[in-house]
Please model this.
Amino acid sequence: MAKTPLNWQDAFPETVRMLSGNGVLLNSLGSDGTPNTMTIGWATFGVIWGRPMAIVFVRPSRHTYGLMAQTPDFTINVLPDTMSSDLAFCGERSGRDVDKFAERGLTLVAGKEVKTPAIEQAAIVFECRTLHRNDLVPAEVDPAVVERYYPEGDFHRCYFGEILACYGNLS
Model:
């Protein structure tokens, strides 16, 4: 089914619902053209610097972290509820060890505005260009958050991505 352009704000409720549930897929691309995907459950959307933005969080221990340094863009892919097992697989396996796209039958399609591909099966796609990245400052994070989410000190890097395109099939 062909995807139609969406206003990113119209895609926000379904995206937040999925982030709060099974998660969404974050695609990245190595400088050699090798794509990767990982499941994320943390992201936020809004307007920064007068531009529509998506902010995603990636730990340095993740394969995606290195790829995000190589290509200055990414895609956020919101899969339908029927693909929860694919989301679980992509969150449990590393792209260092397995081609998640091939293993799960996920079809890559060229981005409309970015180099990083999107996933054909996604109900919603956000294409983002990285405008800024920064690391969380451990001393500035609430101690209760550190205790719960960073017991091993693997603090996230935040990627601020300008939303260049949003498309999909909202019912």
About this structure: The beta strands are 4-5, 24-29, 35-40, 43-48, 51-58, 73-78, 108-109, 118-119, 124-135, 157-168.
